[in-house]
Amino acid sequence: MRRTRIAFFDVDGTLTTDTTLFRFLRYYLAALGHAPHVYEQRRQRLKAMTDIGVPREETNRAYFENFKGSSAPTVTRLAREWFAAELRQGGFLNDHALAALRRHQANGDPVVLVSGSFPACLEPIAAHLGADETWCTPPEITRGHYTGRLIRPPMIGEAKAEAVLMVASAYRTTPSHCTAYGDHISDVPMLSLTGSATVVGGDKDLRDLARSRSWQLLPGAPGTPACPGPPTAAPRTESPGRPQHN
Question: Which of 42, 116, 184, 227 is 20 to 30 Å from 16 at the Cα level?
Answer without folding.
Answer: 42
